[in-house]
Design brief:
- The protein has about 350 residues and is an alpha/beta fold.
- About 45% of the residues lie in helices and about 15% in strands.
- It is built from twelve helices and 13 strands.
- It has a nine-stranded parallel beta sheet.
- A hairpin with a 2-residue loop joins strand 12 and strand 13.
- Helix 1 runs parallel beside helix 10.
- The C terminus is likely disordered.
Length: about 350
């Protein structure tokens, strides 16, 4: 069974952390969420870790630590903390695993092929640096190597370069996943197929940031994929708050988090399948014109949230737009059923 690891935006006491503990599933926290910042003369300077928040983690089934690679690159232009400082954080709590520092290669970060290759090389070096410090601090047993790549072959070469670490690790992390399409020559399926054919049989994978829309396609790699993490429920909570004109509270987010988790776990129990874009929803075929209308409206709603500052601009990815559109389609169908009309309608009949 593939584990769903819930990403949390913080470990502060309150409704969200309490609900996460009650759900009794593994939790992922980002190093960025545990960062302290000083504001000096208009500058924001990283000043250490919120170690006190780790005390709030008591009662969590299992806590994992992410290096916040994409956030560091996109927001700060690089890691504001050193490898020594990061491994000190990893040693401050009995994490189930803590991921290596790595250098993501998404389009918004690595602009050309040369930069992709440079960042893969830096990822290899950062893995070794973290592993050496882990040995010194006695936490090598919970260290999670992380591989990076743009193409399936990139991931294979990165894994080859980290073979000495991978052979000691039952699970390795796979980065640059959350903005990746499911299909295509550089899609999620192609990457998993490459790794499945080339990694040692004993090695399983944790996929960082895989969205719910990709989960049904992971079933075919259940023998290889150990876990995925996501904080996608936060988008649903922001969308609900925006449309309802209410403040987004931890209690609201907690409710969305629980519903999202139940939905993803249900997907993992479904038969293995591959759905076309014009997919089935609630047992009825969704016509292509309706899907196009849903995509357009999803993009506009997400742009409104970006303009208001309630949604990060990097969230406007193909996978998230499709998830948002699917939720709109479901609302439209429920509305149609309540009105006593057929569930499948043309785009002209859809509510605005």
């Amino acid at each position: 069974m593939i584990d769903i690891i819930l990403g949390l935006p913080h470990l502060g006491k309150g409704a969200l952390l309490a609900r996460a503990k009650a759900l009794a599933c593994p939790i992922l926290i980002s190093a960025n969420a545990l960062s302290r910042w000083d504001h000096q003369q208009g500058s924001r300077i990283w000043s250490g870790w919120k170690y006190d928040q780790l005390r709030n983690a008591q009662g969590i089934t299992a806590l994992c630590l992410d290096s916040a690679g994409y956030t560091a690159m996109a927001a700060y232009g690089g890691y504001p903390w050193s490898a020594d400082a990061y491994v000190a954080l990893a040693a401050a709590y009995p994490f189930k695993w803590w991921a290596a520092l790595d250098y993501c290669v998404e389009d918004g970060v690595a602009r050309d092929r040369e930069e992709v290759l440079d960042r893969i090389a830096r990822t290899v070096r950062a893995n070794h640096e973290c592993q050496r410090r882990a040995i010194d601090r006695g936490i090598a047993g919970t260290f999670l190597p992380v591989i990076q790549g743009r193409t399936p072959e990139d991931y294979r070469r990165c894994a080859d370069a980290l073979a000495s670490l991978i052979e000691r690790s039952p699970v390795i992390g796979v980065g640059s996943m959350c903005r990746r399409p499911v299909h295509g020559p550089e899609g999620l399926v192609a990457v998993l197929d490459q790794l499945d054919r080339t990694l040692p049989r004993s090695c399983r994978l944790h996929l960082f940031g895989v969205k719910g829309g990709a989960i049904p396609y992971l079933r075919a790699f259940g023998h290889r994929v150990a876990s995925v993490d996501s904080q996608a429920y936060g988008v649903s909570a922001r969308r609900h708050a925006h449309r309802s004109g209410v403040v987004k509270t931890d209690l609201m987010v907690a409710a969305h988090m629980e519903r999202w988790l139940m939905a993803q776990q249900a997907k993992l129990r479904d038969p293995i399948r591959a759905l076309p874009v014009a997919a089935t929803l609630m047992g009825a075929m969704i016509p292509v014109d309706a899907w196009g209308s849903a995509i357009a409206q999803a993009r506009e709603q997400m742009r409104a949230l970006i303009r208001s500052g309630d949604l990060d601009h990097d969230a406007l990815t193909t996978v998230w737009v499709q998830e948002w559109a699917a939720a709109l389609l479901q609302e439209w169908q429920e509305h149609a059923n309540l009105d006593g009309r057929p569930a499948t309608r043309s785009a002209d009949a859809l509510p605005c």
